[in-house]
Structures are given as C-alpha cells and as structure tokens.
Amino acid sequence: MSTEYSDYMYVFWVKTGREEQALRQIDIEFGNDAVILQLMVERPFRKQGKIIYFTNYAFPGYIFVISEIENNDFIFRAKECARHSMSILKPLCYNGTHQAAMREDEREMIDSLWQGVECIETSTGFFEGDSIVITEGTFIGRESIIKEIHPRKLQAIVEIEFMGRSIRTTIGLEIIRKLS
Questions:
Q1: Any long-range contacts for 165-168 (C-beta under 8 Å, 24+ apart)?
Q2: What Cα–Cα distance (Å) separates residue 161 from each residue in 102, 109, 110, 167, 178?
Q3: Is there a domain that residue 98 lies in?
Q4: Neighbouring C-beta atoms of residue 60, cutoff 10 Å
Q5: Residue 139 CB contacts under 8 Å (≥ 6 apart), including other chains
Q6: Is residue 2 part of a domain?
Q7: Under 8 Å CB-to-CB from 66, ≥6 apart: which residues?
Q8: Based on the structure, what is the number of domains in the chain?
Q9: Each residue of 130-166: pLDDT tens digit?
C-alpha cells in the first residue's frame, strides 16, 4: 500500500535531553511552514507492586517535522536553524546524499504506528511457544519489529528504520499469559 504525500517528513538530530529547547527553536525558525511531531510512547514502570504509566519521546535525540518546503530549501533553513541553536545538531540526510526528505516507505511505517496520535499506548500480548502474539494496541500484526521482550519490566524493544538507519526504541508491553 503506497500513499502519495503532498508534503515531506524531515528529521532533526538534536542533543538528547534537549528536545524541548530544540522544539521551540524549530517553531521559531519555521513557524507555520512546518508541523512538529512529538512522537511519544507510553511506558509502564513497576514501583512497589504498582504499575505507573509515563510518556517519553519514542526516539530521544530526534525530532520529526512535516513541511511542504522542498528538500534543498529545507536543508538550507534547517542548517541555519541548527547554527542558531545550542540543542539542534543538524538535519538528517541519507548517507552520502543531500536527500533529507524521508522516503515514503519509512514514512508510511511511522504514520501507521502513530496513526495521527502523539502517543503510542502500551500494547498487550501473550507468549505462544517462542513467539509473542499482540492482542491489543498499536503493534497488532507488527510482532516482527519487536526485537527484545522484557516481561518483568513490561517493556519491549522495537526496531524502526528511518533515514537509512535502524533505530531501536522501548515500548510498553504487558504480557498477560503464556500459552504452551
């Protein structure tokens, strides 16, 4: 399934922990010319026998932007933005190129996971033999991108490709039972 987009998705590489400052700088520099996506994930945390849910950036150190600005103009403006900022390192481009706009297949993956919401909620599943089956949540049918499972921590590590890189992130995953 291929979607034709009328706009482009770009990624800024920023200093981890300084995403909020970078968001403000990008908003100042681009204004209405760009929509900043805050891709968040809900993660459960077990404390004193209780489960507490909190949200974090899905990809610490990266900020996603949607804009109608063409590739070369965006790179020029993004580099200027980075030059004026202590938090933004640079716009990401594919290795060895000046192509900063994300490829459609990578963008489709991100769009299909976040589906227009800013935060992915915790998924629920169970073990069936050596594999995991997701029964609720965003990752139904996407078990193949789950690389590690930490049932005691209620977390899983997933791998998503964008900008020619494979990036791992932690998502919330509750295992409800194990089928033999």
A1: 167/59, 167/62
A2: 10, 8, 9, 6, 30
A3: yes
A4: 15
A5: 113, 123, 125, 145, 146, 158, 171, 173
A6: no
A7: 7, 8, 9, 10, 34, 35, 37
A8: 1
A9: 778 888 888 888 888 888 888 888 888 888 888 888 8
